Amino acid sequence: MTLTAFIIIGITILVCAFIQGATGMGFAMIAAPVVTLLDPSLIPVAILLLMIPLNGYIGFRERTAIDWRGVKWVSIGRFAGTFLGLWILFVVNLQQLSLLIGWSTVLAAAVALVAPAFDPNRTGLVAVGLITGITETSTGVGGPPLALAFQHKAAPVLRSTVALCFLVGEVISVIVLAVSGKFTLGTLIATAALLPFLAVGSWASRFVHHRLDGPLLRYIVLGFAVVSGVVVIIQAW
Asked: When comparing pLDDT for 24 and 18, which is higher?
């Protein structure tokens, strides 16, 4: 990775950590396409590793608002989806993975923009977890299904519950990927070097998160995600 690419990725991680800390979503949808363009070897391990401390911080910060029922059923589905996502990683090459990331980002963001309000039942939450497990383990992007499930909840509930769902799922995915030999020393070093950017963005979000219900930033995040996904698709072709 060149110094220029590292700086661009670092700034992206900082901005994404701030957005996710403020709104409860957006980190992987924005970061994964940018990282894929500049260094696809970091996908999905670096994204998953960076999101563990980020979501741990967000969940702890607003722990009193967590929807524990939602976390339970999403996590059950998430566990099953992890293994399907791992299978995808083993059967696709980097170009195919880039296309998968691009299309999944665009489609997920588009669905999140137009989906009507709904309150998912147990089956719906398990399905959301299953889809999240597949997409996050294979591409690092798992936010849109969770955002769909909780987007009409109060902002603290959305942020804290999605963060905890992410955290549980990311730990599962990281363990499975590590056992499967998907970790490399280069990826771990690059991830460690990006942690200061993550810390600054997360810390900055604490000054604005309580003032936001998220609609404006939600549209900005999803719009940027669509653009990023399209760029990744074009580059992969």
From this structure: 18
